[in-house]
């Protein structure tokens, strides 16, 4: 799998943003443990989004993306689970590719770490709060996880993907059951072949790709610094593209309900 160098050697930033939502304990325990999710967005929205943060956890720019997305294009209820039971990757491992990869393998494995159970628990809380349609996206490793979740049998998601995706290859999307939105940075591999590989006639909308060649990997997550004008402009465009895409697939699904 493809691991961008910037993914495993870039420290989180000291970006500023006051989170608009709050942490809530998920109703369903995961592997016997209580887990939490950050919740944001209008409580009367019937459109749910599960958001998967990058390996460094929830940071100000991550919250900013979720908060802005939640009030875009008619509004969404966003649930962002705290993905790692014992906390995110230690920053001391950044710069050591082998150690970083080993940590992900130990703590961020989709099956071993009950990640799909955590995601589905977040879906059920969104459903209990009135949501009837669901999308999923992630940043970096989170996009890879979001794609795995949307490749599972019986998965509930209408679309998947996210900004600056890591580990995303033609092989990793071969079983995906909904269209992709991939928003690459200047540091990420070419995502066009991946998008081309999932153009299926039975998807309600075409998969979507855009490349942002003036911003670094991680700019929509823990490594983002939106005091930088280029990152801020590109970040707002990502929020708009995600919101527009999720609203479009939700509207199509709602007509069929």
From TrEMBL:
InterPro entries, sorted: AB_hydrolase_fold (IPR029058), Dienelactn_hydro (IPR002925)
Domain (Dienelactone hydrolase) ranges: 37-189
Top-level taxon in the UniProt lineage: Eukaryota
UniProt-recorded Gene Ontology molecular function terms: hydrolase activity
Descriptive protein name: Dienelactone hydrolase domain-containing protein
Lineage: Eukaryota, Fungi, Fungi incertae sedis, Mucoromycota, Mortierellomycotina
């Amino acid at each position: 799998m493809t691991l961008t160098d910037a993914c495993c050697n870039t420290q989180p930033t000291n970006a500023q943003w006051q989170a608009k939502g709050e942490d809530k304990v998920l109703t369903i325990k995961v592997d016997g443990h209580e887990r939490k999710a950050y919740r944001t967005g209008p409580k009367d929205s019937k459109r749910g989004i599960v958001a998967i943060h990058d390996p460094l956890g929830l940071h100000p720019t991550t919250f900013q993306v979720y908060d802005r997305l939640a009030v875009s294009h008619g509004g969404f209820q966003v649930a962002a689970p705290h993905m790692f039971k014992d906390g995110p990757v230690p920053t001391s491992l950044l710069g050591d590719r082998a150690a970083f990869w080993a940590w992900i393998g130990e703590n961020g494995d989709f099956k071993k770490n009950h990640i799909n159970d955590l995601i589905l628990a977040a879906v059920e809380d969104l459903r209990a709060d009135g949501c009837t349609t669901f999308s999923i996206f992630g940043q970096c490793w989170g996009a890879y996880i979001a794609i795995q979740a949307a490749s599972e049998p019986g998965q509930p998601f209408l679309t998947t993907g996210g900004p600056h995706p890591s580990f995303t290859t033609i092989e990793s999307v071969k079983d995906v059951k909904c269209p992709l939105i991939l928003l690459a940075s200047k540091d990420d591999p070419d995502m066009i072949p991946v998008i081309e590989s999932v153009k299926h006639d039975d998807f309600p909308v075409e998969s979507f790709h855009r490349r942002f060649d003036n911003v670094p990997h991680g700019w929509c997550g823990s490594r983002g610094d939106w005091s930088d004008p280029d990152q801020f402009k590109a970040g707002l465009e990502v929020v708009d593209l995600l919101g527009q895409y999720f609203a479009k697939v939700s509207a199509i699904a709602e007509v069929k309900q």
